[in-house]
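fyi for ur records
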Amino acid sequence: MPKPPKEAIDVTALLTDLLHAQKRSLHAAAREHGLSPQQTAALWHLEPGLKLPMSALAELLMCDASNVTGIVDKLEARDLVRREQGDDRRVKVLTLTKAGDALRETLRATLLAPPPWILGLSRDDQRALRDILQRAEALMRAAGGG
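which gave:
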């Protein structure tokens, strides 16, 4: 495999630093609401009004299905999610409760608030960065990632 260009390595390093900063924000938001980061991520992935199989949540969280059981147990104990039998009786599906939907929206508002380093960019730079990241995401998906 040929060595990637320095610019590509620089971009990867910068993205990694920025992702770690976002992860710190996620952890802080989770703590503020008495959740673990994994519980917060689970709420992020659950869509209001839709049923999500627990196995699909395990894939989204990139963890073993047995770990999802513990995450869901804690969310269910707080009346944030409901676990039900799916159409296929072997499949358990998750739905958000009204309280879960409200907390999910609060978390999303917090986590989607642009950090100061994005707000410090000009609108043109924000648009350019958005457009570049959208193209990168499309290439990632086309390559079977994400």
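Residues 114-146 form one domain. thats all i got for now
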